[in-house]
Amino acid sequence: MSSHNARAGLDKKADQVQDMFDKLAPRYDLLNTLMTGGIVNYWRKITTEAIAPKPGERILDLAAGTGTSSVPLAEAGAKVTACDMSNGMLAEGRKRYPQLDFVYGDAHELPFEDGTFDAVTISYGLRNIDDTEKALSEMRRVTKPGGRIVVAEFSTPTVAPIKVAYQQFLPRVIPALGYLVSPNPTAYAYLAESIAAWPNQEDLGAKFLNVGWKNVEYRNLTGGIVAVHRAFK
């Protein structure tokens, strides 16, 4: 995969994104921890609280990768399906967390019946899906009436000093770190670009409404570097 084809400004071809994450799988969680200075663990805690998993609930964790985001949901007693379209990530996840149910699936056409889940969630994966509204619509389809969606995603910083630092950090530091620690440094140039090109909090909220989700709300984390959106069916 050439760096040109991986660029986020171009179409996100599913096989390219899949190939990229297949290569990153063994070290992906470690790299995320390093690149966020460990704050990813705080973001995950807040996201889990927003999902509010309850014993016996069925929860779909989409773009679950190795299942790190699924573990706290399962520990709360929910029956979690960890779904991803990277076979490399799924294989790594099955090794690490054999207690979780890992399923291959494309967010544009989820392999589940209508109204299957009490909650659906996706963390830092929505921007890697080619058609955002199609994915949000599919997530709504597989959610039970009254169920909820929680999306954690990089967003637009709202605090001026953070905004300036972030604009410097994304295009320079993330790719540089990628070259130091990743077997696939091109992936980190792509990740930086995909974050920069992503809609802001309000624009993403509008996409939820466009496909029928109700009561859309969001919470900014770390000055808006990340936003957690929640809505209901």
Automatic annotation (TrEMBL):
Keyword RNA-binding: no
Catalytic activity, as annotated: a 2-demethylmenaquinol + S-adenosyl-L-methionine = a menaquinol + S-adenosyl-L-homocysteine + H(+)
Name of the gene: menG
Similarity field: Belongs to the class I-like SAM-binding methyltransferase superfamily. MenG/UbiE family.
Superkingdom of the source species: Bacteria
UniProt-recorded name of the protein: Demethylmenaquinone methyltransferase
Originating organism: Glutamicibacter halophytocola
Protein purpose: Methyltransferase required for the conversion of demethylmenaquinol (DMKH2) to menaquinol (MKH2).
Enzyme class: transferase
Entry's Gene Ontology molecular function annotations: demethylmenaquinone methyltransferase activity
Keyword S-adenosyl-L-methionine assigned: yes
